[in-house]
């Protein structure tokens, strides 16, 4: 709407900051028609207020940007920490599987030894016992291979857990730095408001 002639007190309201009196606008009967924003942004020879307002708005935008970066980095740090926990769980599970496979390999080797002894004691059953011994030896070899595979899987999962934990720590550090920058920008914005002289 167009502004009627008279005097208008301008109060600057920014979320997160106390109200600040920006000045008084005087509209005369012969003033050019316009809105309050038009008169507020109009620059005169004796008025440096619009430039001060622009600097203040830039400070507010910078504070908001730092706050958004801090929020984003905090979310990434949380995700990395969660991934680190998942990788650690996988590493523990793989380690248990490796231990189980190693136990199976030991048991198969023991059974292979017993089968070989039985084959040696009985000539009549030597062929059958030798076959059983060979089967147990094959099972022992397979169990040993499974144990080695599980061990490598556990090492890989442990490496992933370590990398995810490092990433989580880095993101947490970046989040803290962004939060600190946001706080510094907010303080600077408040100082800028306080330095604006009253009209």
From TrEMBL:
Low complexity composition bias: residue spans: 114-147, 177-187
Pfam families: phage_tail_N (PF08400)
Lineage of producing organism: Bacteria, Pseudomonadati, Pseudomonadota, Gammaproteobacteria, Enterobacterales
Feature: compositional bias, Basic and acidic residues: 66-75
Transmembrane segments: none
Protein name per UniProt: Prophage tail fiber family protein
Region (Disordered): 66-199
Residue ranges of every copy of the Lambda-like tail fibre protein N-terminal domain listed in the record: 1-83
Domain of life: Bacteria
Species the sequence originates in: Escherichia coli DEC2D
InterPro entries in the cross-refs: Stf-like_N (IPR013609)
């Amino acid at each position: 709407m167009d502004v009627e002639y008279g005097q208008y007190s301008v109060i600057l309201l920014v979320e997160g900051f106390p109200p600040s009196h920006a000045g008084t606008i005087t509209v005369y009967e012969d003033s050019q028609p316009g809105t309050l924003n038009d008169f507020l942004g109009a620059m005169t020879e004796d008025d440096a207020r619009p430039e001060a307002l622009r600097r203040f708005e830039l400070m507010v935008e910078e504070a908001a940007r730092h706050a958004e970066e801090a929020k984003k980095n905090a979310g990434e740090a949380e995700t990395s920490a969660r991934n680190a926990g998942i990788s650690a769980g996988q590493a523990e599970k793989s380690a248990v599987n490796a231990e189980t496979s190693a136990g199976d390999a030991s048991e198969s080797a023991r059974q292979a030894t017993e089968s070989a002894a039985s084959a040696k004691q009985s000539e009549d059953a030597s062929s059958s016992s030798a076959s059983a011994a060979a089967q147990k030896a094959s099972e022992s070899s397979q169990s040993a291979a499974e144990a080695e595979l599980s061990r490598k899987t556990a090492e890989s999962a442990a490496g992933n857990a370590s990398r995810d934990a490092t990433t989580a720590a880095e993101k947490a550090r970046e989040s803290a730095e962004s939060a600190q920058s946001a706080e510094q920008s907010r303080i600077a914005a408040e100082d800028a408001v306080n330095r604006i002289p009253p009209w």
